[in-house]
Here is the input.
Amino acid sequence: MIGIIDYGMGNLASVHNAFNELNIESMISGEPEVLSKCDKLVLPGVGAFEDCMGNIHRRGLYDAVNDIVLGKKKPLLGICLGMQMLFDESEEKGITRGFGFLKGRVVEMKTDLPVPEIGWNELVFTENRPKDLILSAHPYVYYVHSYIASEYNAEDLAAYSQYGDIRVPGIAIHDNVIGCQFHPEKSSADGLKILKWFEEKFI
Here is the structure.
Protein backbone atom coordinates (compact mmCIF):
# COMPACT_ATOMS: atom_id res chain seq x y z
CA MET A 1 0.00 0.00 0.00
CA ILE A 2 1.29 3.45 -0.95
CA GLY A 3 0.31 6.31 1.35
CA ILE A 4 -0.20 9.72 -0.27
CA ILE A 5 0.48 12.31 2.40
CA ASP A 6 -2.40 14.76 2.86
CA TYR A 7 -1.23 17.96 4.56
CA GLY A 8 -4.01 20.14 3.18
CA MET A 9 -2.25 21.09 -0.07
CA GLY A 10 -1.01 19.28 -3.14
CA ASN A 11 -2.18 17.37 -6.19
CA LEU A 12 -3.56 14.45 -4.20
CA ALA A 13 -6.30 13.31 -6.58
CA SER A 14 -4.15 13.26 -9.70
CA VAL A 15 -1.47 11.16 -8.00
CA HIS A 16 -4.08 8.80 -6.58
CA ASN A 17 -5.72 8.48 -10.01
CA ALA A 18 -2.38 7.68 -11.64
CA PHE A 19 -1.80 4.81 -9.20
CA ASN A 20 -5.35 3.60 -9.88
CA GLU A 21 -4.59 3.58 -13.60
CA LEU A 22 -1.61 1.36 -12.85
CA ASN A 23 -3.70 -0.91 -10.61
CA ILE A 24 -1.45 0.03 -7.70
CA GLU A 25 -3.12 0.21 -4.30
CA SER A 26 -2.82 3.64 -2.72
CA MET A 27 -4.63 5.79 -0.21
CA ILE A 28 -4.73 9.46 0.78
CA SER A 29 -4.28 10.17 4.48
CA GLY A 30 -3.06 12.85 6.84
CA GLU A 31 -3.07 10.57 9.88
CA PRO A 32 0.42 9.61 11.10
CA GLU A 33 -0.70 6.23 12.45
CA VAL A 34 -2.30 5.34 9.10
CA LEU A 35 0.71 6.47 7.06
CA SER A 36 3.09 4.51 9.29
CA LYS A 37 1.36 1.29 8.24
CA CYS A 38 1.88 1.95 4.53
CA ASP A 39 4.75 0.31 2.65
CA LYS A 40 5.82 3.48 0.83
CA LEU A 41 4.91 7.17 0.92
CA VAL A 42 4.37 9.90 -1.65
CA LEU A 43 4.70 13.60 -0.77
CA PRO A 44 2.95 15.66 -3.46
CA GLY A 45 3.22 19.41 -3.56
CA VAL A 46 1.59 22.46 -5.11
CA GLY A 47 1.95 25.99 -3.73
CA ALA A 48 4.58 27.80 -1.70
CA PHE A 49 7.32 26.02 0.27
CA GLU A 50 6.72 27.96 3.51
CA ASP A 51 2.97 27.31 3.46
CA CYS A 52 3.39 23.60 2.80
CA MET A 53 5.99 23.06 5.52
CA GLY A 54 3.83 25.10 7.89
CA ASN A 55 0.89 22.79 7.26
CA ILE A 56 3.07 19.73 7.74
CA HIS A 57 4.20 20.98 11.15
CA ARG A 58 0.74 22.09 12.24
CA ARG A 59 -0.76 18.70 11.40
CA GLY A 60 1.89 16.76 13.30
CA LEU A 61 3.29 15.19 10.15
CA TYR A 62 6.90 16.40 10.34
CA ASP A 63 8.03 14.06 13.11
CA ALA A 64 5.85 11.25 11.78
CA VAL A 65 7.37 11.37 8.30
CA ASN A 66 10.88 11.58 9.77
CA ASP A 67 10.20 8.46 11.84
CA ILE A 68 8.77 6.56 8.88
CA VAL A 69 11.59 7.51 6.49
CA LEU A 70 14.61 7.62 8.79
CA GLY A 71 13.48 5.26 11.54
CA LYS A 72 11.50 2.64 9.64
CA LYS A 73 13.51 3.20 6.40
CA LYS A 74 10.41 3.19 4.22
CA PRO A 75 10.72 4.65 0.71
CA LEU A 76 9.44 8.18 0.07
CA LEU A 77 8.75 9.87 -3.29
CA GLY A 78 8.49 13.65 -3.38
CA ILE A 79 6.78 15.27 -6.39
CA CYS A 80 7.36 18.86 -7.60
CA LEU A 81 7.21 21.01 -4.44
CA GLY A 82 7.19 17.70 -2.58
CA MET A 83 10.67 17.07 -3.96
CA GLN A 84 11.82 20.54 -2.89
CA MET A 85 10.66 19.89 0.66
CA LEU A 86 13.04 16.92 0.82
CA PHE A 87 16.02 19.30 0.80
CA ASP A 88 17.55 21.22 3.72
CA GLU A 89 15.91 24.58 3.08
CA SER A 90 14.26 26.94 0.61
CA GLU A 91 14.73 30.65 0.02
CA GLU A 92 11.12 31.09 -1.18
CA LYS A 93 9.43 33.84 0.90
CA GLY A 94 12.44 33.85 3.25
CA ILE A 95 14.44 30.88 4.52
CA THR A 96 12.30 27.88 5.49
CA ARG A 97 13.67 24.55 6.66
CA GLY A 98 12.71 21.39 4.79
CA PHE A 99 13.00 17.76 5.84
CA GLY A 100 16.73 17.54 5.06
CA PHE A 101 16.55 14.04 3.56
CA LEU A 102 18.52 15.43 0.60
CA LYS A 103 21.44 17.84 0.94
CA GLY A 104 20.88 21.17 -0.78
CA ARG A 105 18.82 24.32 -0.85
CA VAL A 106 15.98 25.45 -3.09
CA VAL A 107 16.49 28.71 -4.99
CA GLU A 108 14.56 30.81 -7.49
CA MET A 109 15.12 30.06 -11.17
CA LYS A 110 16.98 32.89 -12.91
CA THR A 111 17.00 32.69 -16.69
CA ASP A 112 16.02 34.69 -19.77
CA LEU A 113 13.29 32.12 -20.48
CA PRO A 114 9.80 32.47 -18.97
CA VAL A 115 9.49 31.61 -15.28
CA PRO A 116 7.72 29.54 -14.11
CA GLU A 117 8.75 26.78 -16.45
CA ILE A 118 5.48 25.25 -17.58
CA GLY A 119 5.44 22.41 -20.06
CA TRP A 120 7.32 19.42 -21.42
CA ASN A 121 11.08 19.03 -21.26
CA GLU A 122 13.43 16.19 -22.06
CA LEU A 123 14.72 14.18 -19.11
CA VAL A 124 18.44 13.38 -19.39
CA PHE A 125 19.88 10.68 -17.15
CA THR A 126 23.26 10.88 -15.44
CA GLU A 127 25.61 8.03 -14.59
CA ASN A 128 23.72 7.77 -11.28
CA ARG A 129 20.47 6.66 -12.90
CA PRO A 130 18.84 3.52 -11.48
CA LYS A 131 19.75 0.77 -13.92
CA ASP A 132 16.33 -0.86 -13.68
CA LEU A 133 14.39 2.33 -14.49
CA ILE A 134 13.70 1.88 -18.19
CA LEU A 135 12.00 4.71 -20.08
CA SER A 136 11.76 5.65 -23.74
CA ALA A 137 14.89 6.71 -25.64
CA HIS A 138 14.09 10.42 -25.21
CA PRO A 139 11.61 10.78 -22.34
CA TYR A 140 9.76 14.06 -21.96
CA VAL A 141 8.21 15.01 -18.62
CA TYR A 142 5.89 17.79 -17.49
CA TYR A 143 7.17 20.64 -15.30
CA VAL A 144 5.43 23.47 -13.45
CA HIS A 145 7.87 25.31 -11.18
CA SER A 146 9.71 28.55 -10.41
CA TYR A 147 12.30 27.16 -7.97
CA ILE A 148 14.94 24.45 -8.28
CA ALA A 149 17.34 22.57 -6.04
CA SER A 150 20.93 23.84 -5.78
CA GLU A 151 24.08 22.95 -3.84
CA TYR A 152 23.01 19.30 -3.88
CA ASN A 153 25.29 16.26 -3.80
CA ALA A 154 26.28 15.45 -7.39
CA GLU A 155 25.98 11.73 -6.68
CA ASP A 156 22.32 12.22 -5.74
CA LEU A 157 21.41 13.61 -9.18
CA ALA A 158 19.93 10.83 -11.32
CA ALA A 159 18.41 12.95 -14.11
CA TYR A 160 18.05 16.57 -15.21
CA SER A 161 16.42 18.77 -17.84
CA GLN A 162 17.96 21.75 -19.59
CA TYR A 163 15.95 24.97 -19.48
CA GLY A 164 17.87 27.69 -21.27
CA ASP A 165 21.16 28.00 -19.41
CA ILE A 166 19.78 26.28 -16.31
CA ARG A 167 20.25 22.60 -15.52
CA VAL A 168 17.07 21.65 -13.69
CA PRO A 169 17.54 18.72 -11.27
CA GLY A 170 14.79 16.38 -12.45
CA ILE A 171 15.32 13.30 -10.28
CA ALA A 172 17.36 13.14 -7.06
CA ILE A 173 17.87 9.94 -5.09
CA HIS A 174 19.51 9.33 -1.73
CA ASP A 175 19.08 6.06 0.14
CA ASN A 176 15.33 5.41 0.44
CA VAL A 177 14.28 8.89 -0.74
CA ILE A 178 13.57 9.99 -4.31
CA GLY A 179 12.38 13.34 -5.61
CA CYS A 180 10.93 14.26 -9.01
CA GLN A 181 10.81 17.99 -9.80
CA PHE A 182 8.38 17.24 -12.63
CA HIS A 183 4.94 15.66 -12.31
CA PRO A 184 5.20 11.94 -13.20
CA GLU A 185 1.43 11.61 -12.83
CA LYS A 186 1.05 14.13 -15.68
CA SER A 187 3.95 12.89 -17.81
CA SER A 188 2.19 10.35 -20.01
CA ALA A 189 3.57 6.81 -20.41
CA ASP A 190 7.08 7.54 -19.14
CA GLY A 191 5.71 9.24 -16.03
CA LEU A 192 3.56 6.23 -15.26
CA LYS A 193 6.59 3.99 -15.74
CA ILE A 194 8.37 5.99 -13.04
CA LEU A 195 5.48 5.54 -10.63
CA LYS A 196 5.31 1.83 -11.39
CA TRP A 197 9.07 1.49 -10.89
CA PHE A 198 8.79 3.29 -7.55
CA GLU A 199 6.13 0.85 -6.38
CA GLU A 200 7.78 -2.30 -7.70
CA LYS A 201 11.53 -1.80 -7.57
CA PHE A 202 12.65 1.24 -5.55
CA ILE A 203 14.51 -0.02 -2.45
